[in-house]
């Protein structure tokens, strides 16, 4: 049984924006309930654009 969640593009981009304004990855993961690996992937993905 899989327990992964799907997040929309807007949510992902907003977390990346918060990260870029100074929030730490651990703060964002704790506050929004996302995994560290997912957030790291989004940061890499959205900062390349």
UniProtKB/TrEMBL annotation:
Tree of life domain: Bacteria
GO molecular function: DNA binding; transposase activity
GO terms of biological process kind: DNA transposition
InterPro entries xref list: Homeodomain-like_sf, Transposase_8
SUPFAM superfamilies named among the record's database cross-references: Homeodomain-like
Gene3D superfamilies documented for this protein: Homeodomain-like
A Pfam family this chain is assigned to: HTH_Tnp_1
Name of the protein described by the UniProt record: Mobile element protein
Organism: Streptococcus pseudoporcinus
Lineage: Bacteria, Bacillati, Bacillota, Bacilli, Lactobacillales
């Amino acid at each position: 049984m899989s327990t992964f969640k799907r997040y929309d593009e807007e949510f992902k981009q907003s977390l990346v924006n918060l990260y870029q304004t100074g929030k730490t990855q651990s703060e964002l993961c704790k506050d929004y309930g996302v995994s560290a690996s997912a957030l790291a992937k989004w940061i890499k993905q959205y900062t390349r654009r």
